[in-house]
Amino acid sequence: MGLDVVELLMRTEEVFGISIDDFDAGQIRTVGDLYEAVCTQLNVSPSPNPDMSTFALISTSKNGPLSVHTPDEIWVKLIAIIADQLQINPEGIRYNSRFGPDLGAD
């Protein structure tokens, strides 16, 4: 796992107020893997086919973690985090996108 992915995981943990253990982090290869790990940590059932056409209001707190209520909100926020962290267009991020080969993360 490269530095880009480690930094992405750390930012995801911070934003969602979760902690992904080292074993689970080592299993994350795709955007879908990360999405499912976040949903698991938040005790939310992931959507079977999330995509960028699903937009919802996401409430954030300046001093606390993200307040998330649905799998679709988790997906939209996760895509925003990935796009910002990796400086890529969110429209190119898909559930099966691999961090290294597809998204250019090291």
Q: In words, what does this structure look like?
A:
This protein is 43% helix and 0% strand. With 106 residues, it is an all-alpha fold. It has one domain (3-92). Helix 1 packs across helix 4 (71-86). The longest helix is centred in the last third of the chain and has 16 residues, at 71-86. The N and C termini lie close together (7 Å).
Q: Layout of helices and strands, plus pairs?
A:
Layout lengths: L2 H14 L5 H5 L4 H11 L29 H16 L20
Helix pairs in contact: 1-4, 3-4
Residue-averaged pLDDT, rounded? Answer: 86
End-to-end span in angstroms?
A: 7 Å
How many β-strand stretches? 0
Radius of gyration computed on alpha carbons: 13 Å
Task: Please report which band the strand proportion falls in: under 5%, 5-15%, 15-25%, 25-35%, 35-45% or over 45%.
Answer: under 5%
Provide a quick synopsis of the model.
This protein has 4 helices and no strands. It is globular. The chain is 43% helix and 0% strand.
Q: Characteristics of this structure?
A:
106 residues, mainly alpha, 0% strand, globular
